Description:
Layout: H1 11-31, H2 36-52, H3 59-62, E1 79-84, E2 87-92, E3 97-102
Antiparallel strand pairs: 1-2, 2-3
Bound molecules: zinc ion.
Amino acid sequence: MARRKIHGKPLWMKQLALENIRSLFAQARKQFREDRELAHAQVKAARRLSMKYKVRIPKELRRQMCKHCYRYLMPGANVRIRTKNGKVVYYCMECKKFMRFVY
Length: 103
Ligand SMILES: [Zn+2]
């Protein structure tokens, strides 16, 4: 089992990983009100999958996760969203850091 990893993972594995990532985020969203820690753990698991299988977390999901502390971000609960000069600024109340997105 000394295969080198230069070719990455097979496509079907990546697609499966992406599906799992999406479902982890969906679970985190449902879970958040009841158990924040569990929601955060699910987002972290999604991130681990994305790294392991080298798949990018879809854009719309990346905004639901703090890129500093990797916690699930729920607007109105633990993230403040402001628009400024054509950019959206997310302020994570968990780790007190900012993220910026362009429209
Ligand atoms: Zn954070």
